[in-house]
Write a structure and sequence with these properties.
This protein is mostly helical and 48 residues long. 50% of the residues lie in helices and 0% in strands.
């Protein structure tokens, strides 16, 4: 993925989207949901 695309995502000029999230998540070795739902809060007692 071009650095310009990453910059545009960071600056809210381009939506992350599922496919881009998959590419970035693979590079970061995390699940795409971590990127797509970054503001999601999980209560401690419901977390597995």
């Amino acid at each position: 993925m071009p650095q310009s695309t990453i910059s545009a995502i960071e600056n809210n000029k381009v939506n992350l989207g599922v496919e881009r999230a998959k590419v970035i998540a693979k590079a970061l070795k995390c699940h795409p949901a971590v990127l797509v739902f970054s503001g999601w809060e999980v209560r401690q007692e419901s977390a597995a």
